[in-house]
């Protein structure tokens, strides 16, 4: 049965973390809307792990945002995907993002958060209190400050309606778990 899934992001989203879920969901026959601060072409970035102590960033492809956050009625959607990259660090300040994400937690609908997506939750500390999740390792202090347990022994973790993952190399298992919850 076809579901409606919302992806929330913005410029500097990690390319693989937005494209892979988008096309995977379309492949399964779901209707997918990408929302951003405004309806426009978004710039993606590619994060890779070279010989550096941290990841390197390069420009990626463009992808269309189909709607602005202000236009989104989260009650119309069955699931939510939050990609990482640098987008979460600034879209988390948008009151509409907080409204949208809070709806999915309160309605107990499937939420998929990968890599730096956990930064979104820092503006809503109550939604993660007592929960467990994983994220990119640099996000661990923020996760723990929210009163959540950071899971380090698995790169993909499921806690109720929340699927979380470290980074783009975990996309196959991440999407498999999210699709399972979406059914």
TrEMBL record:
InterPro entries: C56_PfpI-like, Class_I_gatase-like, DJ-1/PfpI. It holds the Pfam family DJ-1_PfpI. Gene3D superfamilies: 3.40.50.880. It comes from the Bacteria. Residues 3-180 form the DJ-1/PfpI domain. SUPFAM superfamilies: Class I glutamine amidotransferase-like (SSF52317). Belongs to the peptidase C56 family. This is DJ-1/PfpI family protein. The lineage of its organism: Bacteria, Bacillati, Bacillota, Bacilli, Bacillales.
């Amino acid at each position: 049965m076809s579901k409606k899934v919302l992806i929330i992001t913005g410029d500097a989203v990690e390319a693989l973390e937005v494209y892979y879920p988008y096309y995977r969901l379309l492949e399964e026959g779901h209707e997918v809307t990408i929302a951003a601060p405004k309806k426009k072409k978004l710039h993606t970035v590619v994060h890779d792990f070279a010989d550096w102590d941290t990841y390197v960033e390069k420009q990626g492809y463009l992808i269309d945002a189909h709607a602005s956050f202000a236009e989104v009625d989260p009650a119309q959607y069955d699931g939510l995907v939050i990609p990482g990259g640098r987008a979460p660090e600034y879209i988390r300040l948008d009151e509409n993002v907080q409204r949208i994400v809070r709806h999915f937690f309160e309605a107990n609908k499937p939420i998929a958060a990968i890599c730096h997506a956990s930064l979104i939750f820092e503006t809503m500390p109550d939604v993660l209190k007592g929960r467990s999740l994983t994220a990119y390792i640099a996000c661990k202090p923020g996760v723990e400050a929210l009163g959540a347990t950071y899971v380090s022994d698995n790169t993909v973790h499921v806690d109720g309606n929340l699927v979380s993952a470290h980074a783009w190399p975990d996309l196959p298992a991440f999407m498999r778990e999210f699709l399972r919850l979406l059914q």
